[in-house]
């Protein structure tokens, strides 16, 4: 049993970055001596991929300066003159700092920057490929070097603008505003822990999902050989497959075809691009598509074939391939049943759930994680939900988390979500009969999931963070846990506040904004997400909470299936 796990495989992000770069290159740019199986595949020949490649798949790094507020006395009034000038210029453009706004606030931008409750920070992030206005991404913030800021924990990033900066011999040139940033700062909850293997600087933090795109990323196909006729042909091929109110593809220039991600793919633009690249160009040969579909079905049987590309080609052709795919669902070869099921479920075939469910239920299947992921993404296939609900009780906590993510995305009633503390974080209560489990997100959004109805504190227990901001205690036999709160704004500590032992009820007491109930008892201590995470994790480790603890993790084989031995990566899951 995997207990109290907190693992992040750093190589995943590096590998995925390399993958994005690979998809942005022309075909044939491979490692010398390694043959790409896709080049000779029917999933490549006569497709859009053979005549064009996608430009715009690299992430775009943006940065700016921002202000973190709510630090008590842990901030700093120090700020280099040039940075201060930029900050003031942007702050005075905000509506809240117009004359009427300043009169309502009774404070000026200069006074805010000079207050030790605030700290000027460098804000950086990477806008994802194919991002559209409104899309969110994580931000990294760090206090300016040489200032007296001691910690960003408990702070909030005030709204700031983010731009691409181009470095020149004369200095850095800032471009137009491409994104904005704001939100609660997440500081590694074990940053100062004496037992931490690597101590992390508490002056550095993240704003999970705090970046918001304001300008759409440019996305286009670059033709290998410029031609007006070919550009129109490619554009028409894509527009015919992805019907939308506005054109998805625009081929008015001979060298490029502009692309716009359809609304239905807004949450997964990369999948749209994958399908678009695998569309077959019009052919004058009678029965070409039917013949090609049969060839793909035969090629899928080959263990060395580019199976994911074949599945995408099936998806590009559409539901007319359903009969061929169904003949492959029950194939005894794992790669055949999985990839045919993948193509089928993406086309909306409810019968495709069974081959994927068989892999999901099989602990020995190399495609187990990928199958659960495919079912989680199949929001339009009702039968997938039943399999995912069963996976909530699986012995492997990673399987349970992937199933929970899929059910939450489709609004399944077995996951009940509550917003804690305005926008502090989300609390999800997950119906599950498996081992008690608490899962915590640390990218994209702030979210804690409690699996099971009986997850509770087990007295005796004691917790206090490194700065003494939160103390939790209970003696053996107690039916409540006492909470003491000290904020960064004062050295005063609250009197003991009795809170429930049941974790799903205790977490709102910790993270919600303070309110007084009818008996004048405070409910809600406004504890920041990072500190709530640390308290829960430490209590789980001490067996003072009767649950396993799992911090968000990412591993390549689990999420994307087995890595290929050579050639093109099967990585689009």
Please describe what this structure looks like.
- It is flat, with a radius of gyration of 27 Å.
- The chain has 573 residues and is of the alpha+beta class.
- The chain is built from 18 helices and 22 strands.
- The chain has helices at 11-23, 48-51, 81-91, 99-105, 109-114, 228-241, 269-277, 288-299, 307-317, 322-326, 334-346, 353-361, 368-377, 383-391, 397-409, 503-511, 529-541, 556-560, and strands at 5-6, 52-55, 60-69, 119-127, 136-143, 156-168, 171-184, 204-213, 220-223, 249-250, 256-259, 415-420, 425-430, 437-440, 447-451, 461-464, 470-474, 480-485, 497-500, 515-516, 522-523, 548-551.
- Among the domains are: 60-213, no CATH class; 456-546, no CATH class.
- The longest helix is centred in the middle third of the chain and has 14 residues, at 228-241.
- Strand 14 and strand 15 (447-451) form a beta hairpin.
- The protein starts with a strand and ends in a 13-residue tail after the last helix.
- The protein has a 6-stranded mixed sheet, sandwiched between helices.
